[in-house]
Each structure stands twice: as structure tokens, then as C-alpha cells.
Amino acid sequence: MEFIRSDARDFPATPCALQQSAGYAHALRELGVQSETYVAKDGTCHIAKLHVLRRRIGPMNIAWLPRGPVWATDTPPEQRARLMRTLRKVGTTSTTWIISSETPQETRLFPHLVLMSPQYVAEIDLTADTETRLAAMHGKWRNRLRHAERSELHIRQRPFRSDRDLNVLVFEASQRKQRGYKALPPDFVLAWEKAGPKSSRLFTAMRGNTPLAHLLVLLHKPVATYHIGWSGAEGRRLSAHNLALWEAAAWLTGKGYLRFDLGNVDTQNAPGLARFKIGSGARIRPLGPTCLHLPHLPFGRRPRHDAA
């Protein structure tokens, strides 16, 4: 097994989370974060790509692998397990690895200690037809969409540009402070824009010339990620955010995207946003737990603290 540091441009296009996309890696480097991308090969075969974040805390070298690796199609379980066992080749043998797997099943590939229970995420399957996506919505959500469609709203969509759209970040930062949820800082969007000027799309619900709601989507084909959503009082009354999300999904489908990631579903700290995502008809699924990787523990043994 060989780990090659690269931009992974030769890796086959595979659906992945925002955290494993090239744009995310570039944006974090722009913000001064130590961010590295590797391609794992076994002979001439691509096995996986990995975006790793590094940090030093006192004497400890920390490597964090968020929602990865991204596996090549049809990589068998035994090859995946071997990659996870040889992660110490990426860096030094003293590196402490923290891994947040994409699925609970992937956690079984390596010995570990669970640090944090799994988060849940919402995903819209863009390969499904319009009628199937409508049928998957909760009744109240679908009624709000119809309400918005009957109003005088229209959706304006264009690439996000900080020189004209900075107010969107200001509105969202104020909303975040008011509601108490966590998100990446506004500077991340500016860094993402520099890494790829057309790698984001801003959908705005308009009544006449007045914007009532904004939805910012980050593009990393074949997946797109819902990043920012904001709606004023009149936008909420007219269900403008529902219409913006629906139109964004339609635009993404037309451009050949396969999946629309709506992000974490946090019913405790952001219950309103969680209800909005669940009601949209998105599939809700668990990620793997956040784990401390223990590469020197014999395979097949796990600490007692592991989740069932």
C-alpha cells in the first residue's frame, strides 16, 4: 500500500462529503490550516483518497480524517481494512489519528476508541424523479412549497461573489448568533470562493426586487452541499426557503449532480433547521462515530468503550 501526496485530480470522480472535497482542502489552506490530500494505491490500482487535517497540540501530532477515506468503486473490505491499518505511513508513527468515518460500518475496519457518538446527516437523492422527491416530503413541508409557488416569489440564482453578496454572510452570522447553532466561519466562504470562483451558487427568493431568503450551495461535483440558509420574517411567512431549496435541487439535477447534502441534523441545538431538513424528504442517516485510531492494537480487538 502506497500513499502519494497529490491534489487527487487523477482519482476517479466519486461522491464524497464536503470535508473530503478538493475545494474544502484548498479553502482551509487559504485560511492557514495544515491540510494534506493523499491518494492510496495498491500497485497501479486506486484504493482511496484522503483529505487529512493536521495540528500540533503541545507534544502531540494530531491528524484528523473527517468523513473519509473516499473509496474507489468496488474496493473490497479486506483492502479497506489494510489501508486503515497502514495509516501510520502518512506522517510519523507517533501521530495520533482521529477519524470520523462516513458510515458506522467503516468503523469496524480498524481498532479504535470511540470519542463521540455518531452525528446524523440529511441527503437528497437527485437521481430520483420529481414525483418521487415530492412524495418523500412531509405533508406540511409540501404544502408550504405549494404556498410559496402560488405567491409572487421568484428565484434568482447566480454564482456567489463576495464583492456583491457579502450581506448574505452578515445576515447568516447574525442569525447564527441569535439561534445559537454552530457553523464554519464566514471567512470559509471567502476562501472557498478564491479556491474556485464558480464553485458556489446563491439562490435568492425575490418578491419584485426585494430579496426575502437566501440559500448558498457549495459545489463539488457530483455532490453539492447546503452551506447557508437565511430567511427574514416575510420570507418565513411566504415559505420562501422551501421554494429556494426546491429550485436549488432542480437546478443541481439539471447540471448532473447526484446528491444534495443538507448537512447535520441537530434536533437539540437547532430543532427548527432539523425539522426543515427532515420535512424536505431528505434521507436521514448516521455517520460513523468520531474515533481515536489505535493502529498498534491487534486487529479484531477493540477497547471496552467501543459503541455497540
UniProtKB/TrEMBL annotation:
The source's domain of life comes to Bacteria
**Where is each BioF2-like acetyltransferase domain found?**
142-264
Which Pfam families does this UniProt record tie to the protein? Acetyltransf_6
Q: What is this protein called?
A: FemAB family protein
Name its species.
Roseovarius aestuarii
Source taxonomy: Bacteria, Pseudomonadati, Pseudomonadota, Alphaproteobacteria, Rhodobacterales
